[in-house]
Design goal:
Layout: H1 13-28, H2 33-40, E1 44-53, E2 59-70, E3 76-83, H3 88-104, E4 110-117, H4 125-139, E5 148-152, H5 158-172, H6 193-211, E6 220-224, H7 228-239, E7 243-248, E8 253-255, H8 262-272, E9 282-284, H9 286-290, E10 293-299, H10 308-313, E11 315-320, H11 329-338, E12 342-344, H12 346-349, H13 352-366, H14 372-397, H15 401-420
Parallel strand pairs: 3-4, 3-5, 6-7, 6-10, 10-11, 11-12
Antiparallel strand pairs: 1-2, 2-4, 7-8, 8-9
Bound molecules: glutamic acid (GLU).
Length: about 425
């Protein structure tokens, strides 16, 4: 029997959670022992020190990572997170989920993730630019359009991807837009990429509500996290006629049973940077938001917010995981026992982002650009296909929807590794 000799490098609650999910899925499909460990553990990682000249003339050294989980199914793909709580274990867990996500959606990619330990809100715009460029300069030898293609994640955005594309292109001495996705349109970004994750979440929510015979028009929605993903999900669901009864960021939650004016909230956020003092409803805590009575609950912030205790008190009909890893392993068990909540698991629910990243990369490689309708239409086709395969797997093996999605994602990666054989 094979046994991994594993270091403690990635040791953390979130990495353990990703490993437990993997072990459960591998057992469920009787994945051969000899392929397990090399499918499970990240392939390689890079840690970088990032010295940045501050506006006051002093120098601060930040730490960053890039973890490539799997390169057997194509170039690795995944976002870069700028957050003060980033750890290499978290980045490794997120890279595993990227592998299953890309594989489930049928994208010709492996999985990766990057992160820098920094609160980007504490940096001026020019400091942020220097940090973004320095990070790209350090990881440049480790990535590339046919090796590993970064994208935005929590705390990063189009502007940062633009600086990174410019840094990589300068390093090469020619334009290389396919080196990152989520860029500004003017640098080869795709139509529809900014809204892709939220549009995908909203589309899947609509499709699952249809399956449940619940009209999306008038459905009540609570969304935790009002960054790019939460904001775009709110806009798209409001566009389908749903009533957004609660939103939140790290400063506050806002609850309004009559419905929140999403555009007003986004405009407030644009000018004030945080939701605190937004007068579109009464203030609640993030924890109160998660327990609200609603049709759809959308965690769209960080991982592990739905603990066992919170899972027991949820009052939603559908849990749409727009964030990566929002539900702990023990919370998941409780949701399974309860059986009254339809979970749209993260690797399916938020796949819209990486699917449109794939379209962006294709457009860059071909120098041939699509319009927004074409992008969204193709996005929905892939999401429908992934949803159908998950539902088929769920029915066939009587799995939970998460187990169905994970087993499909893991199986395809393991099969590719098996077909390629062990080198040398
Ligand atoms: N960061 C996003 C995710 O977690 C997008 C990744 C990508 O577009 O490569 O799926």
């Amino acid at each position: 029997m094979s046994k991994a000799i594993v270091s403690s490098l990635y040791d953390s609650d979130v990495f353990k959670m990703a490993c437990r999910q993997f072990d459960q899925a591998a057992d469920a499909i009787s994945l051969p022992e000899e392929i397990r460990d090399r499918t499970k553990y990240p392939r390689r990682c890079l840690a970088v020190a990032l010295p940045i000249k501050r506006d006051d003339g002093t120098v601060t050294v930040f730490e960053g990572y890039r973890v490539q989980h799997n390169l057997s199914t194509g170039p690795a793909k995944g976002g870069i997170r700028f957050h003060q709580d980033v750890t290499i274990g978290e980045v490794a867990a997120l890279s595993m989920w990227m592998s299953w996500k890309c594989s489930l959606a049928g994208l010709p990619y492996g999985g990766a993730k990057g992160g820098v330990i920094v609160d980007p809100r504490q940096l001026s715009e020019s400091e942020l630019e220097r940090l973004s460029r320095r990070y790209m300069q350090e990881i440049a030898p480790f990535i590339g359009p046919h090796v590993d293609v970064p994208a935005p994640d929590v705390g990063t955005n189009e502007k940062i991807m633009g600086w990174m594309m410019d840094t990589y292109s300068n390093h090469l001495g020619r334009n290389e837009p396919a080196c990152v996705t989520g860029k500004p349109i003017s640098l080869g970004g795709s139509q529809g990429r900014r809204e892709a994750t939220g549009a995908g979440v909203a589309y899947l929510v609509k499709r699952y509500l249809e399956d449940l015979n619940i009209p999306v028009a008038g459905a009540t929605v609570a969304i935790q996290g009002f960054g790019n993903v939460g904001g775009e999900t709110a806009l798209a669901l409001a566009g389908y006629g749903a009533k957004i009864i609660a939103i939140s960021d790290y400063t506050t939650g806002i609850h309004n049973a009559r419905g929140i004016d999403v555009k007003k909230a986004l405009a407030f956020l644009q000018s004030q940077k945080v939701l605190r003092d937004f007068d579109g409803g009464e203030a609640i805590t993030n924890e109160q938001l998660l327990g609200l009575d609603c049709t759809v609950l959308v965690p769209a912030a960080l991982e592990r917010v739905i603990t066992a205790e919170i899972a027991a008190g949820l009052r939603c009909r559908v849990l749409a995981e727009a964030a990566n890893g929002p539900t702990t392993f023990s919370a998941d068990k409780i949701l399974e026992q309860r059986g009254d909540i339809e979970v749209i698991p993260d690797v399916l629910c938020n796949a819209g982002g990486v699917i449109v990243s794939y379209f962006e990369w294709l457009q860059n490689l071909q120098n041939f650009y699509w319009d927004r309708d074409e992008v969204l239409q193709k996005l929905f086709v892939i999401l429908d296909r992934a949803k159908s395969s998950v539902e088929y797997q769920k029915r066939k093996f009587k799995f939970s929807r998460r187990l169905a999605a994970l087993t499909l994602g893991i199986q395809r990666v393991a099969e590719a590794k098996q077909s390629r054989g062990l080198f040398p």
